[in-house]
Amino acid sequence: MAKTVVILGGSLGGLHVAHALLKKHDKDLKVILVSKNTHFFWNLASVRAIIPGQIKDEDIFRPLESALSRYSATSWELLIGAATAADFDGKSVEVVLAADNSTRTISYDQLVLATGARCASPEAPWKAAGSYEDIIHSLHQTAAQVQDAEEIFVGGAGSTGIEVAGELGYEYGKTKAITLLCAGDRILNGDSVAPAAANELRKLNVTIRYDARVQSAKTHPDGKTEVTLANGETLTTDLHLPTTGLVPNTEYIPARYLSADANYRTVLVDEYLQVQGAQDVWACGDIVSKPRAGFFITQKQAASVAKNVEAALAGREPTVAKGPPVDIFACAVGRGRGAGRMGSIKLPSFGVWLAKGRTLGVAMVAGYIDGSVA
Ligand SMILES: Cc1cc2nc3c(=O)[nH]c(=O)nc-3n(C[C@H](O)[C@H](O)[C@H](O)COP(=O)(O)OP(=O)(O)OC[C@H]3O[C@@H](n4cnc5c(N)ncnc54)[C@H](O)[C@@H]3O)c2cc1C
Predict the structure, then answer these.
(1) 32-52: per-residue pLDDT in tens?
(2) For a substitution probing ligand 1, which of 247, 286, 304 has the most ligand atoms within 8 Å of its CB?
(3) 37, 71, 144, 40: which is closest to 362 by C-alpha?
(4) 88-140: per-residue pLDDT in tens?
(5) How remote is the CA of residue 235 from the centroid of ligand 1, in Å?
(6) Which atom of ligand 1 has the smallest separation from the CA of 15?
(7) Cβ distance 70 to 367 under 8 Å?
(8) What pLDDT score was predicted for residue 263?
(9) What is the mean pLDDT of residues 133-153?
(10) Whole-angstrom distance between the N-terminal and C-terminal Cα of the chain?
């Protein structure tokens, strides 16, 4: 009987692993992909999708079924629902199906955890926290609010905040007041890219307000939002777009497999990306967030996990997971420029635009559907 590999999460990590396995084991494996969403979401372009008219839904959302249907019908199953419990000793997971809220217990031979991380603010559209309909609604609603607002605050000056502020500045820098609220005295946590990114934002008329850590934000019935800063100051704006904080989607995993950091409960893995203390359970991407949460890191980890799952199924030893050869950190700043580095080498603004900001990687979506990514 074909062995069963269950993959939890149908995003950049999970779909990559599914393709890598199914491409080679179309006949002798059953891959069950569990996803909260019916669609694959290219979240890297969400920062531009909130600018009305810039990105079509179908460019960044594609049905997961269209990715899997190229393999034998008996080799895969797509379950739309959420993993709610996991028993690594008994080798099973519990999934609540979106269609009817029923619970299904699924046994596995190998399990891959790829449920990533969500935005700390539930209303933020940068990651898919709920269903496909939820995230589409959130993106459309944000785009409509952006259109109507005269003054916009972007809360948080990490890479998502820089990119959101850049997109807004590029489109509306001359017609709307755009302010980036930065918790400390330097954006991007003081990364060496920070001065170049700040300079690009200034060119787009984005005001950066330092030492402005957002403590809370409340929208009033008249539509205005009151933002309270950690220093007690209260600001009122037409729209506040929060970009701070990621929360690993690990609530269904027993606590003993998770990091002790109560604010960031990632799953603990060894050098093979096997979950520490568990057998036949692997993890990749933002659920691991090591060395950090990032797309290239997720891709590399997904490839390693697929290889180690294959090895485990064949009774071979796993191999140590490899990361990207060099740490690339790049922020698009609007549709014309950017700031970034490769290792410690600064990248020119034009180069970042060419490699990232021009399309925000939307062309890569095709590879996740036709499987060429893996
Ligand atoms: C705006 C933005 C821009 C970015 N740009 C870059 C960049 O330029 N370069 C870079 O390196 N990285 C970038 N990143 C980071 C990159 O998006 C992540 O590293 C990547 O998405 C991680 O993929 P993942 O598959 O691990 O998890 P996620 O993309 O977080 O996906 C997890 C999936 O699992 C689903 N899920 C959650 N809980 C459950 C459950 N219980 N059961 C079933 N399914 C579940 C979720 O709905 C989601 O579909 C960016 C991130 C953001 C937010």
Answers:
(1) 999 999 999 999 999 999 999
(2) 286
(3) 40
(4) 999 999 999 999 999 999 999 999 999 999 999 988 999 998 999 999 999 99
(5) 31
(6) 25
(7) no
(8) 87
(9) 97
(10) 26
Q: Which of 35, 41, 44, 341 to mutate to test the pocket of ligand 1 (most atoms within 8 A of CB)?
A: 44
Which pLDDT does position 27 carry in this prediction?
86
The class level of CATH for 132-243 reads alpha beta
Residue type, 320: V
Q: Pick the atom of ligand 1 nearest to 12's CA.
A: 25
- The residue behind tokens 């809370």 is 216
Q: What's the 48 CA to ligand 1 centre distance in angstroms? A: 16
- Among 324, 323, 330, CA closest to 361: 330
Cβ within 8 Å of residue 26, ≥6 positions away: 71, 72, 75
Token pair recorded at residue 369: 């559907």
Q: Which of 325, 324, 354 is CA-nearest to residue 338?
A: 354
Residues within 6 Å of ligand 1 by CB? 8-14, 34-37, 43-44, 46-47, 82-83, 114-117, 126-128, 160, 249, 252, 285-286, 293-296, 298
Residue extent(s) of CATH 3.50.50.60 domains in the chain:
3-120+246-325, 132-243
Percent of the chain with pLDDT over 90: 95
For 48, the token pair is: 């531009």
Per CATH, domain 3-120+246-325 is 3.30.428.10? no
